[in-house]
Amino acid sequence: xxxxxxxxxxxxxRYPKMQAQDMVKxxxxxxxxxxxxxxxxxxxxxxxxxxxxSLSGPSVSPPFEDIGGGICxxxxxxxxxxxxxxxxxxxxxxxxxxxxxxxxxxxxxxxxTLTTLCKEGLLxxxxxxxxxxxxxxxxQGCPPVSHSPAYREAYRPAYRVIRQAYAPFxxxxxxxxxxxxxGKPLRVGIDxxxxxxxxxxxxxxxxxxxxxxxxxxxxxxxxxLRTEARLAEPGGNIDYDRFQExxxxxxxxxxxxxxxxxxxxxxxxxxxxxxxxxxxxVVEGSYSYHPxxxxxxxxxxxxxASPALQQARILRRNGPEMLQNFITRWIPMEERYFAAFHxxxxxxxxxxxxx
Length: 355
Prior knowledge:
It is a single chain. This protein has 14 helices and 12 strands. Helix content is 47%, strand content 15%. Strand 1 and strand 2 (71-75) form a beta hairpin. Helix 2 packs antiparallel against helix 5 (104-119), helix 3 crosses helix 4 (83-99) and helix 4 (83-99) crosses helix 8.
């Protein structure tokens, strides 16, 4: 439980007036999230709006505060500058509540970590005070717990518990919500390094918004077109002509999209698929911003990853043999494309992937 140990120490330094119940609350949220607070989405939003309206003074907390277990506290004060921001935060809170489950044994491990730190004198609570509190807490069946009066008075906590994975994309989510609020179809492109999380972000958008997704992998260059001259072009290793013909007209018109995805496992086109119109259309994958496509997107996102993280992800996903293929072939081709067409510089959002 080294990670949660570090989190406890960080929070104790940031909030020195923490009491035993505040530490238990931190452990509880780290394991179980905030699902116990969600009755219904509309009611949750109303409560959030009322709470945001009552805020006064700056927050002592960062916008997103890691509490372990892939969970963070999203503090209201720096995040609620617009109606869309409140709606997005509520949406992330509700989605997180539905997906975070946790377990009692893992929660007990965190309580043991808390006990150990108190015995070591590293937290502002005596071992005896913590033991007394935990005895009563366990006798009640380990329910959700509120912040202590001392903590509320000192820090005025106002936050929602969400998945940490959402945090880097909060401004993007707000921009998408603002675009969708106009009632017009919205088109988002996601380009970036392989292994930077483009498909993961697209899937996330599909969970949060009414959405259809077109993967650029479906337009991988077929063998007959793979000439030396074509592969030497920046961005030449996709079938940009077929994308122009089959995707762009429907994308721009907000019409159904019908095409045949390319299957790399058999190096051939699969059966035809049709994507019905949706308020949000996402095109994701390297080469999504090829200049031959013009300017089809309302929002352009570029995801980047450090070489170390990129290679670690490719190794997990594709294995050591394919990793070498990426290093010697596919990654250099991507980098030529990014540099030739200044892809990051022409993007609305540049987001760095984190492990």
